[in-house]
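Same chain as my last thread, 261 residues:
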Amino acid sequence: MQTTVIDTDYGHLSRLADQAADGAYLFAEHTVEAGRATPYRTHPRDHRSFVVIAGRVRLETPTETRTYGRLGGWHALPGCVHRIVNVGAEPAVLIEAGSVLGETREMTEPEGATDCHCPDISDYTVHKPWGGEVWYTHNLPGVPYALKRIRMTEGHQSSLQSHRQKLETNYVIEGEATVLTGATAPDDLSAVIDLERLTTTVHRPRTGWTNPPGELHRVIARTDYTSIEVSTPELDDVIRWQDDAGRGHGRIDSEHAGGRS
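reply #2:
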């Protein structure tokens, strides 16, 4: 992942979605220094989702304020005016993801702002043989992106998989993972995959990678690890070429039993 870092009045902004994801979704990391606040922002055509990964912040809109700590977050709906204030003694770090259909406007005061509401991110949980996922955007049906938190326990690995349509970018926030990528999936679903064809990289916190459609990939947990993933919305688009639990392709309904909305 090649990031672009921009200095700001409140700290800095790192653009996380590399060139493969241009135009598909926004994925960025904001660092808000102690005692600082972002400008008020609004994006009339876009949904945006925010997740705190370090520190403590206050979300301010013209009608409400709420405080969030690590792994808490919210959705900013189209047209909503909002800003983020660091209320802790250390820098606060947040992930922002969302659609990129139109412009984002900034202002020093919420002039002319209309009433708006920023719902909390969803805690819908999907259980996996290797850990689990929290689908943050499960309560935003129909949006053109998906945001989730992935947790894998040490010594486990995901299936060797590919996607027909889904484009995804992962960003590690805790632990270490080995990632296998770099080869195109064959057309023949019965083909045997030679893992020696794949490139191996190790990712630690504040690093990540993008998997375009059709690319073979697998994640192996070197330690317990957590990542934030943004993708296009095709969450059930999974071809499993190898799987330690013997799962087939696509959605596994039993993994969603007991999921919270």
